[in-house]
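User: I'm putting together notes for a lab meeting next week and I want to include a structural view of one of the chains we've been expressing. I don't have a solved structure, so I'd like a prediction I can at least talk through. The sequence is below, exactly as it appears in our construct file.
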Amino acid sequence: MTQTPTQGTQDLQELIDALGTEKVITDPASMDKYRWDRAHDPDAGMPAAVVRAQSTDDVQTVVRFASGRRIPVVPRGAGSGLSGGSTAVAGGIVLAMEQMRDIRIEPLTRTAVVQPGAFNAEVKAAAAEHGLWYPPDPSSFEICSIGGNIATNAGGLCCVKYGVTTDYVLGLTVVLADGRAVQLGGPRLKDVAGLDLTKLFIGSEGTLGVITEITLRLIPAQRPPTTLVATFPTLDDSTAAVLAISSQMRPSMLEFMDNPTINAVEDATKMGLDREAAAMLVVQSDEPAEFAAEEIAAIEKLCQQHNASEVFATSDPEEGEAFVVARRMAIPAVEQKGSLLLEDVGVPLPRLGDLVSGIAEISQRREVVIAVIAHAGDGNTHPLLVFDPADEDQAQRAHTAYGEVMDLAIELGGTITGEHGVGRLKRPWLADYLGEDALELNHRIKKALDPENILNPGAVLDPAALTDNA
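Assistant: Thanks for the context. Below is the predicted structure for the 470-residue chain, given as structure tokens.
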């Protein structure tokens, strides 16, 4: 049972006494910005309190308080999530990690010990001071938190070669639903003692525990990349080029933008992108200079064999970075065209062409603009559905298309989310994706670790399926 904000305020006094008014916010106006992430879930509730935690002890205090009263607790990082994973629950507590920002680099073990509120960019910068690199790089790396990255197992532009967040997490401190803090893993590259519980919490979206400290693996700094940009007259040509490149080599970046995305980015940047192109690939090689030149030359040949209308390559880091920045700003550029429904579907790489062409067919049939960007090298696409919320018919068509895109991904053997998480917005499609048996295992694990369903209830799993706590 949850409380309403009015009912809960008096009951919060024990929490306020324990943490202080500088950490516990109960003013509705001050709490409002904590109700949504970037998905702007319309069902966001007004919490009873927002707690700005500063330590593991603070988090334990909140969870113990909430557990004894069955008050929902929604962990929140930077609020940059795109699936409603940190949508506030009415009468609950939003546990904001934004003040937990400590970063400690250990050069000898090539690790970073990080609190969850630290931005991805801050970890990269701290590692760079020691000649090291933290590879996972979501497009929002400058504004997204490490805790949020772990909650959804975020990837990014370099993941085609270097992997995603889970590949760099060695250890976690996690506060469980009963308030206990457990240490999982640590600064060891090999450790197979017991079940791999560390991996269980990565991608769990705050539904199994609250992460308060992370040990990350770092690697030597990346070499300056060589960049290639290719445009194509058809979607089929571009996706065929992606398959040809991926089957023969492993570039450090292989990104895709379709025509609506190219035009939105060109509107924002005026950098001279080809507005007529059906698609554009941004490819990088970070091999040593002589090998990078060979790899880029081979990629250029493959693009030309697949009817590229233009191919441009540069070894100048600043010139290459300009195209990477253009790719990173795709979502905010498209967002200027209207309200967005943001997808995050992925398919096995051989089905990438079927997915991209299928999305184009849905866009045409539903008369809704769908701009597609993709981490093409691993089959993870981000279709962006653009609509005018004041146009009810168009909004309805956009929401219908949103579901059809996910249905298409499942039909092609893909997933409803590659790195943004299920959150609340994609939960209705989870059962179709997982299947009955795998979904039941998810319910079992959730009930075992959070029997009262207080941790981020409504995210990922259907609360109705978790009401039996026997």
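A couple of points you could mention at the meeting. The chain has three domains: 5-96, 103-220, 226-411. Residues 88 and 379 are 32 Å apart (CA to CA).

User: Perfect, that's what I needed.
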